[in-house]
Each structure stands twice: as structure tokens, then as C-alpha cells.
Amino acid sequence: MSIKAKVLLDEEEIPKAWYNIQTDMPALPEPPLNPMTKEPVKPEDVLPIFPMEIIRQEVSTERWIPIPEEVREEVIFFNNSGHGHFDLGAYDAFLQGKLVDYEYPVELVKQALANLPKIP
């Protein structure tokens, strides 16, 4: 079992911009193809499933893409649960200053992993 590290950032340390790695790639990846037309996906193709702001970020040629403040606020609250799922009980405890950091025992993790079904 590998050891994982969790990095906790203070609110002022949470990034204010996303880094767009494509600006530093020697060659851009091939664009995704529309499964119906087999042509490169256009923004209007994915508009029914993604907000326009996300589409803009995906096609941006800027190295740094500003993170809207309302998104940063949600990231701060979302990450307080520690497991990636928004936990309203943990959020309430955080607001009251009663959030307890709990580390799940390694032995119980090993037991749970041992009971997972084997997938061929």
C-alpha cells in the first residue's frame, strides 16, 4: 500500500488562476471528435452538458486562467470534507470551529481493499 500525502492550504494560499499546460506543450493534442460527425468538437456541441465558462477554459490559449471568486469559495468549502465529497455535516462543524481531522486506520483500509471483488 502506498502512502498518500494530503496538502492543506490556508484560504489565501488557494490558487487564484488555473495553469493551462497546453501553452507550454511543443505540440497540441488532437482535438476530441464529435462521435456523430467524426469532426472536431465545436463549443456548441458540448454546450448542453458544459457551461460556457468551462468551454472557454478548455479552448483558451492563455497560460493562466483566472478562477472566479465564487468558485474559489466553493473549493474552500468542498475540500473541508477531506474525501472529495461535499459533506454538509462537516461543513456545519467547520463553520462552528468543531471540525475534527480523522485519519482512517490503515488496517481497516487494508481489510476493505481485501474484500473488493476481483475484476478480470
Tell me what the structure shows.
- The protein is mainly alpha-helical and 120 residues long.
- A two-stranded antiparallel sheet has the order 1-2.
- Helix content is 32%, strand content 5%.
- The chain has 5 helices and 2 strands.
Secondary-structure map:
Layout: E1 17-19, H1 43-46, H2 52-59, E2 64-66, H3 69-78, H4 88-95, H5 106-114
Antiparallel strand pairs: 1-2
Helical fraction? 25-40%
Question: What sort of overall outline do the alpha carbons produce when their principal axes are compared?
Answer: extended
Gyration radius, rounded: 20 Å
| Beta-strand segment tally | 2
User: How many H/I helical runs?
Assistant: 5
Total separate domains: 1
Give a quick account of the main beta sheet: strands, pairing sense, barrel closure. 2 strands, antiparallel
Class of secondary structure makeup: mainly alpha
State the end-to-end distance: 21 Å
Give a brief rundown of this model.
By secondary structure, the protein is mainly alpha-helical. It is built from 5 helices and 2 strands.
Descriptive terms for the model:
mainly alpha, 32% helix, 120 residues, 5 helices, 5% strand
